[in-house]
Fold this protein.
Amino acid sequence: MELLTLACLDHLPRAAVAFVTDGTGLCGTSVEDQWALRQELRRKYGARIPWVDVLTKADLLRGEYGLGEGAEGGRRGVGGGGGGGGVAERSDAVDEGLVVRTPQELSAALPRAVRVSTPEEFGLDELKEAVMEAMEDL
């Protein structure tokens, strides 16, 4: 993790996190290592700043992320039921004992994460909405 990024999160009076995870591991970092980093940052910053989890490459992981073949949107489980859905509902708390190694485990651990696919252009409106909500909470 870039030291400058951590310094910003430590010292900026207002900040938000959009934590992007690549469940395919094609980014060069395993799902398990990405999860460990997310958990570390969530422990340190999650209670004091808005947080949005994003699962990328959903087009490659449609089944693993629980998206149907005809899915237009990239998110699942956001704002279900009692209206509102804010940023806090889009991220999940740290479970110290949880180890995540696969895309399926990642999806299960983050049911309110925004799922996106840039090639298929789905989830992008939901991501924009989530980021805007996070900014409003600042």
